[in-house]
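Hey, can you fold this one?
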Amino acid sequence: MEKLRWEEDWRVSDGKLQIVGARVQGSGAGMDPPEGAVFDNGWWRYTPKVGPQEVLVLAASGATGDGWLLCSSEGCLTLGEDAEATVMLRACDPALSR
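Sure. Predicted structure:
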């Protein structure tokens, strides 16, 4: 199985999730960079044309093996390690999470 690293950067804006950048290390197996992507230091970098999202759904097929790694300035957390475990992310009020 071919494994290519794929990363996305999101921010919370007006109570919604907004993708602000993405990158894939290499190409192949359905991970080809989109038109307009720029190759920089081993990564294809681009900005997806997707509007703000109320919910981000991460589906775990079991084919990825490792689940999803969610990182913030406070550290990283692995989500969706179990096959078929759907993870739903939503913006929240930071004051409520402390």
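The chain has a mean pLDDT of 84. Let me know if you want another pass with a different chain boundary.
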